[in-house]
Amino acid sequence: MDPIVVPCPQCRALNRLPRSRVADVPVCSSCRAHLLGAPIELTAADFERVTARTTLPVVVDFWAAWCGPCRAMAPNFAAAAQDLAGEVVFAKVDTEAEPALAARFAIRSIPCLVLLQAGHEVRRIAGALQRAQLVQWLQGR
Ligand SMILES: [Zn+2]
Q1: What domains does the chain contain, in order, with CATH numbers?
Q2: Which of 28, 35, 81, 94 registers the highest number of CB atoms within 10 A of its CB?
Q3: How many angstroms does the Cα of residue 55 sit away from the middle of ligand 1?
Q4: How confident is the model over 82-117, as pLDDT tens digits?
Q5: pLDDT for position 140
Q6: Helix axes 131-139, 68-83, angle to 10 degrees
Q7: Is-contact 25 55, C-beta < 8 A?
Q8: pLDDT, position 2
């Protein structure tokens, strides 16, 4: 089977690994952090590189610290990242720190989830979701 390319949630290095190794709790070749199952924080500096070169779908959570529903959804987002480890890469963009990224995606209300494939938007949904709703939305393709 084709290898997959995924970003390290810790150091953002892109790692290539065989699909068969997804269940083996793979670690980053640069920093040895666990590669799968944890959300990765993205900034304007690495957003393009990571979302375009990751071979899995990438779901981006546009959020802000002042947003109550965003904070409420954060644990659900982290739990869904574990549920879909090796299937979907979970990323977060702080819209206060990264207004240019929020503007580029025309984010009007948060939380807003945008699903990307090879850097291109597939679909989006606004509003806080529960863990099961998140998994269902991501698998409904
Ligand atoms: Zn790393």
Answers
A1: 37-139 (3.40.30.10)
A2: 35
A3: 17
A4: 999 999 999 999 999 999 999 999 999 999 999 999
A5: 85
A6: 60
A7: no
A8: 84
> 9 alpha carbon to ligand 1 midpoint, in Å?
7
Active-site annotation, residues: 67, 70
- Confidence at 141, pLDDT banded by 50, 70, 90: low
- Name the E strands within 2-111: 3-7, 14-18, 40-41, 58-63, 89-94
Provide mean pLDDT across the span 110-131.
97
For residue 113, the CA-to-ligand 1 centroid distance in Å is: 24
Question: Using 50, 70 and 90 to split pLDDT, how confident is the model at 50?
Answer: very high
How many whole angstroms from 108 Cα to the centroid of ligand 1? Answer: 32
CA 16 – ligand 1 centroid, Å = 12
Nearest to 62, CA basis, from 99, 118, 102, 104:
102
Residue count (the chain):
141
CB distance 9 to 38 below 8 Å:
yes
Partners of 124 in the β-ladder: 114
